[in-house]
Amino acid sequence: MEELAKQYSPKDVEDKWYKYWQDQGFFKGSPCSGKKPYSIVIPPPNVTGILHMGHALNESIQDILIRYHHLRGFQSLMLPGTDHAGIATQNVVEKSIAKLGLTRQKIGRAEFIKRVWLWKEEYGSTIVHQLKKLGVSCDWSRERFTMDDEYSEAVKTVFVALWEKGLIYQGNKVINWCPRCQTALSDEEAPHNELQGSLYYIKYPLKEPAEEKYLVVATTRPETMLGDTAVAVNPKDKRYKNLIGKSLVLPLCGRQIKIIADHSVDMQFGTGAVKITPAHDFNDYITGKKHNLEFINLMHPDGRMNENAGNYNNLDRFKAREIILHDLQEQGLLEKIEPHQLSAGHCYRCHTIIEPYLCPQWFVKMAPLAKPAIKAVKQGKIKFHPERWTKVYLNWMENIQDWCISRQIWWGHRLPVYYCRKCHDSQLSAVSLQLSASARKSFNGIIVSKEFPKKCPKCGSTDIYQDEDVLDTWFSSWLWPFATFYWPNFLRLAVSGQRPTVSDQQRKEELSAESKKLKADLKYFYPTSTLVTAPEIIFFWVARMIMAGLEFMHQIPFKDVYLHGTVRDAEGKKMSKSLGNIIDPLKIIEEYGTDALRFSLISITAQGQDVFLSKERFEQGRNFANKIWNASRFILLNRKRAGICVDLVDFAKKNKLSVINRWMISRFYSCLEQVQNDLDNFRFNEAANTLYSFFWHEFCDWYLELIKPEINDPATEAVTNALLEQYLRLMHPFMPFITEEIWQKLQVAQGLSIMQTDWPRMQKKLLDIAAENQMQLCCEIITTLRNMRQEIEVAAQDLISAKIFAPDESSLRVLEPFSGYIKNLARLDNLSIACQYQPKSCEYVTLLKQIHIVIPLSGVVDLKQQLDNCNQKILKLNSEIKNKRSMLENKDFVGRAPKEIVNAERGKLTQMLNQLKKIEAIKDALR
RNA sequence: GGGCGCAUAGCUCAGUUGGUUAGAGCGCUACAUUCACAUUGUAGAAGUCGUAGGUUCGAGUCCUAUUGCGCCCACCA
Fold it and tell me: Of A79, A45, A155, nearest to A528 (Cα)?
């Protein structure tokens, strides 16, 4: 028999098994007609990503689901891949070429993209390798990247389809602009954060001063005043009623602007007069449209003021603010400054304060897409877990805004938008870019097409160029659940492109066969089963996938969405590089092992609650792995032969099993039922904790200790081995490596892997409540005796005598078979079990339920302790009896509570009274 | 301004549909090392379940209000 080391060493087994599983193709998910599919597409991590605890938690949960369903007989598929992460990746590569003294502008678009691909080839697989360390059962042969050629086809197809449906339009609107990344962002990419700022009160002189010389406006961004084209007041505001329609002279630039009336102005805020800067504020844009105001763009794309800012040209927007304030002060036009809390959008990639910026961008009209997506969730076709996220989803969807999808960066899917220089550019002007639906009906030189158009459909010109912008990364991610299956063309371009040796005909046939296969693949695995992700990306990703799925596949993309919490540090802060509070999963794996990492993470993740993590947490997982290891070691060391993992159902039928074996088998199945139930309801931590306490506290602490003397009994040996083997299968989704390692050592079936077994089937017939109750009593007697030994200070190694008195003959018969177990675990050299206790002095007695447990004492003994115990118990019992009595005397309780409950309570009272009598008898004997 | 989450043992948290005496891990106290495991075992101490009302025969659990902490959404300049 192979020796097991005294301690479990994850390093020796993890890589070995992962390679084996992969080599054997166990992770491969191919359609299988006899099996139900269970599929998960993993949230593709950014190619620039490095593994953090969030990934570790996310992947662990998914892998548990996959391995669990795999064992339960589903054809499972965990599809991996990475996201090209437009802005993030571009930033990383820009930084790397900056070290060579280069900028992307210097090297040009083509060269830059080439470098990004090179970077991707070199570093893009880092995250993939790291994911493998987590033991995830991804089908790596299906790994996808959102910039794969085939994937790009899907993106283009979707763009064109939405365009043709009139759901994509180009518009000149105020959008979120990041002056550092120099691109537009969607609303979701510009989260608002609180800032401590100031509210500046600025005097705007009236053109024709009367009683009033000035109108004072309050603003948080004084630099934008140079772009003001009106000041608005509320028409109901008595203070300003007579000023409406009058003109003001804009300080510092002398331009004249009108005072207008608008109901949206809050009279309570500031002075009740609002400067209107339509090109640099979302509200003002709307007001500007409404009142037909002029739009003045004040800034260069990098956040410096432009020529429209006059003297402040070329100054950074914040520097300009300082100087403008200084100049206003000098001219006596700055009335006052108040501290003011405000919130401003920040770039989610570089955290720069975004600038509301007027420029032409491309948008998706979302409301029509949202409608069916709302319905699907309301009808329960897609369920969120925990359920509360449903509301968050619906609230966002019901107030959905159009999605700005164009980005002024280079890395990403280029818009499939082309312009005829002749037809388009001639009518180009900044303002006329606002294209209404009706305007688009007549051709304006814009060609939206998957392919580069050969000529302009109107004028036939070949002078055509492509739009410079690329699409928002999420415009590709939202197709992930089906684009990863080679939708819509079902062709693998990389494969079809080569193979010069085969004939055209042959290749055609091959391609059509492959395409058929890919189509079947999608049909089999889509809709996917469960999406596991973090709540932060409900809007970015989850909601949009639902919309895309319904729009393009006419089916939901997944049935269940499980949202897990955010991993935080012990203080509750988000883990981040800049805070330096990161716990690196790879270091944890190195130190404690992957199984420990997975188990610890799962066991502390209550349904969607955030996880507060400290390194010590992982000790629990490591210790548990070691416990499993050592219990197995014990079983393996003691067994006479390999391969004795019997079928429990069959074995129980053919053999009359002892109560202890029936008990443990019963406990196992009750554990199984619980775990299954928990997993089916996304209660991963409950499942983990059930498995933990069953194994450690029931199987090891009690069962193995109890059976030690009879370890070589053939029936016990068979049951023990079978239970361990089946337990390993339950444990496998949580701790894949150690369970495989031990399972192999058990030599259950030569040449097979634990991954090729089945999840044990529930056996209701093997649940044995009687055996459970009896064994529980046995254990309680042992615990009571151990406790009594400590109270009378018997040394741990000493053997003593004890007596047990049952209340009646039938309980006596139940207790008698336990004599050996009790003697052994309570360290007794002599135990008598009899009926009907008679109080005596000189003995230490404890009452357990109706059973007297007695340790005879010899010599001079201090009985004060025992007397104290008795008194304490009597006191407690009396108060409990009083409560129970008043409860049962309450007519409402007796009348309204269910009969079972009332009867149970009556029974309890009887027992308590009985108990009280007996304790008083013991006390009397002490005197 | 709207919405959500959390408050339970010294610490970190479980507690599914209201029904025995509210649980775990860590920590703490005492004891134990020729025993599968000291990454261990045995026993123990420790909680008026944030506060105030309400519903109910019965509330940690349901309702209302309130306090504190955290998060999300929203155009208050």
Answer: A79
Which residue is associated with the tokens 């002075």? A271
CA triplet A237, A243, A244: central angle to 5 degrees?
75
Residue nearest to nucleotide B57 (CA to C1'): A893
Nucleotides of B under 7 A from a protein CB: 3-6, 12-16, 19-21, 24-26, 31-33, 36-44, 56-58, 70, 72-77
The tokens describing A674, both together, are 């619980």
Q: Report ipTM for this prediction.
A: 0.94
Residue A444 vs residues A419, A449, A463, A868: alpha-carbon distances, Å: 9, 15, 15, 98
Going by their DSSP bridges, the two strands A247-249 and A81-82 should be labelled as unpaired
List Cα–Cα distances, A363 to A367, A468, A539, A550, in angstroms: 12, 15, 16, 19
* DSSP 3-state percent helix, strand, coil across chain A (nearest 5): 50, 15, 35
Structure tokens at A215: 């109108």
Other beta carbons within 10 angstroms of residue A529's beta carbon come to 20
Give the CA-to-C1' distance from A764 to B63 in angstroms: 40
In tens, the pLDDT along A274-326 reads 999 999 999 999 999 888 899 999 999 999 999 988 889 899 999 999 999 99
Task: Indicate the average pLDDT of chain A.
Answer: 88
Alpha helix stretches (DSSP H) within A432-580 = 437-441, 474-477, 480-483, 493-497, 504-525, 543-548
Residue A564 DSSP one-character state: -
Helix (H, G, I), strand (E, B) or coil at A150: helix
Cα A634–chain centre separation: 38
Q: SS3 of A508, please?
A: helix
The dihedral region occupied by A760, where left means phi > 0, alpha psi between -120 and 50, and beta the remainder, is beta
Q: How far is the CA of A688 from the C1' of B43 (A)?
A: 27
Give the Cα separation of A277 and A923 in Å (integer): 90
Kindly state the DSSP code that residue A710 receives in the 8-state scheme: G
Q: Which nucleotide is nearest to A626 (CA to C1')?
A: B39
Query: What is d(CA A27, CA A755) in angstroms, rounded to the nearest whole number?
Result: 10
CA A223 to the chain's CA centroid: 42
Instruction: Calculate the angstrom distance between C1' of B17 and CA of A540.
Output: 34
Q: Can you tell me which residue has its alpha carbon closest to the C1' of nucleotide B30?
A: A790
CB A194 within 8 A of CB A343: yes
CA-CA distance, A382 to A397, in Å (whole number)? 14
**Which strands make up the sheet holding A334-345, listed edge to edge?**
A214-219, A192-205, A334-345
What is the distance of C-alpha A7 from the center of its chain? 33
Contact A333, A344 (CB under 8 A): no
The angle that helices A659-680 and A53-71 make with each other, rounded to 10 degrees, is 120
Interacting residues of A691 by C-beta distance below 8 A, sequence separation 6+: A671, A675, A727, A730, A731, A734
Token pair for A849:
């339920």
For nucleotide B25, the protein residue with its alpha carbon nearest to C1' is: A620
Q: Which two tokens stand for residue A657?
A: 């099993």
Tens of pLDDT, residues A585-634: 999 999 999 999 999 999 888 777 777 778 888 999 999 999 999 999 99
Kindly state the DSSP code that residue A833 receives in the 8-state scheme.
E
CA distances from A711 to A121, A637, A716 (A): 57, 11, 6
Nucleotide nearest to A536 (CA to C1'): B72
Nucleotide nearest A286 (Cα, C1'): B75
Which residue positions in chain A have pLDDT lower than 50?
A: 1, 429-440, 496-497
